[in-house]
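Quick one, T. Sequence first:
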Amino acid sequence: MIGKIMTDFDAVSPLSYRALLMAVSDNCIPLLIQQNTRNGSSIFRGGWNVYKVGFNDSDGNFWIGNEILHQLTMSGGFRLRVDLQSANSPTLQYWAEYGSIVVAGEEADYRLKVTQFMGNTGTDALAHHNHMKFTTVDRDNDYNGFGNCAGRSFHGGFWFRNCYQCCLTCQGQNFEWAGLRGGQQLTTSRMWLMCQY
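Structure tokens:
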């Protein structure tokens, strides 16, 4: 149901944002904002407008949409949890958590801000992407001097810097979290908005 809600809102009203925000924050319900199941899906290769409104597919790959992510986090009332499964250690579960997350609006290119890392990943690979604007194949906001990180072989929109330490929307060997204890290549990633403690 969440995927349906997130992908059918070309013109979501502010009332709908408020209703979702209240449902998540008042009831302290974790909200899935991203899932990549590493099945070769090309769904993550979308452009700016696709990432703006969100998408999903029948294999469980999912992105909530940058605009709704901004609307939900602009007040700073959420933390971010990232669940990871390594290709080399598929029975082990890894996680990273951030005490706060804010995604700026489209006028600021959906810039990411996360704070207060903790987890069992071995490294804070998302720190490399902190304070970065979102980049897609058709909008280059990264610092890479050799071209658009999303337009190279990585094929996914993300908060690229030059280019990444983690890419949860990338495909194949680029779907990874650098320094992950069980091996940086991933089989699954999920990002969640969680209410603050």
